[in-house]
Amino acid sequence: MKLLRFGPPGQERPGILDAEGRIRDLSAHVDDLAGEVLTPEGLARIAALDPATLPLAEGAARIGPCVGRVGKFICIGLNYADHAAETGAAIPDEPIVFAKWTSAICGPDDDVEIPRGSTKTDWEVELGVVIGKGGRYIDEAEALSHVAGYCVINDVSEREWQLERGGSWDKGKGHDTHGPIGPWLVTPDEAGDVHDLKMWLEVDGRRYQDGSTATMIFKVPEIIAYVSRFLSLQPGDVISTGTPPGVGLGQKPPVFLKGGEVMRLGIEGLGEQTQKVVQA
Question: What is the DSSP letter of 138?
Answer without folding.
Answer: -
